[in-house]
Structure formats: structure tokens, C-alpha cells
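Section 5: illustrative case.
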């Protein structure tokens, strides 16, 4: 049994299958989930687990070379906007509609219980060397 890191077996296994360039959408409870990508739904109740908790846990285990979020997060959800800026100084911003289109190409979707709007980010996996 693992003693640290992500303990959820479905999420841990999905992360182990990712490669360079693969997309991982970390999303709030309201984001439409496209057909195609593998989905690990962590949502338990409104706000649980939070977008911030899940993102922090994923970033502790993944190499990320880029991130894309919706421009709307700036006005609609300042805490999520600040969190994204803190983690990704070169955050790419697109419209929410464009983010939904891009998410269809993700390899993995991780749904949180976040109940604040536009708490979504599409991560692009990098390599550790």
C-alpha cells in the first residue's frame, strides 16, 4: 500500500499512464466532461475536494510544461485566478468555450467538487529530464 502522495488508486494509476504532451483537465463540478478522455471523478460534495487541494496534489506528482485556463476566471473567481497565476507564471488564457473544445483532446479529466465558477485548468504534461 502507498503511504504518501495520491492514494486514490484510479487517479494514481491514470497518472502513471500519462506521457509527454498528454493533457490533464482539472475541473470544477460544473464543467461539461467531454466524451473520450478517461475520467476520475473525485467530487464528493459541493466544495469537496476543492480545486486547490486537487491541483496541489497533482502538481506534486506531475511534470507540467504548460497550462491553459479560461479568461473568465479573472473576474468570476479571483481566488482560482490567483492560484493559477501562482502555479503557472506563463498561464495561457482562452475563452471558456475554447477551453471546453480543447478539453476534448485531454487524456485524463479529474473532476473536483469545486463549486465556484471557472475553476478549471488544462495541464500539458512534460518530462522530468
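Designed sequence:
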Amino acid at each position: 500500500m502507498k503511504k504518501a502522495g495520491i492514494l486514490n488508486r484510479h487517479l494514481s494509476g491514470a497518472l502513471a499512464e500519462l506521457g509527454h504532451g498528454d493533457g490533464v483537465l482539472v475541473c470544477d463540478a460544473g464543467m461539461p466532461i467531454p466524451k473520450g478522455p478517461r475520467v476520475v471523478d473525485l467530487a464528493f460534495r459541493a466544495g469537496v475536494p476543492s480545486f486547490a487541494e486537487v491541483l496541489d496534489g497533482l502538481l506534486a506528482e506531475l511534470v507540467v510544461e504548460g497550462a491553459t485556463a479560461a479568461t473568465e476566471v479573472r473576474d468570476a473567481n479571483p481566488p482560482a485566478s490567483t492560484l493559477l497565476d501562482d502555479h503557472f507564471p506563463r498561464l495561457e488564457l482562452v475563452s471558456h468555450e475554447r477551453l471546453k473544445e480543447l478539453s476534448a483532446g485531454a487524456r485524463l479529466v479529474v473532476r473536483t467538487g469545486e463549486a465556484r465558477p471557472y475553476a478549471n485548468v488544462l495541464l500539458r504534461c512534460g518530462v522530468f529530464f
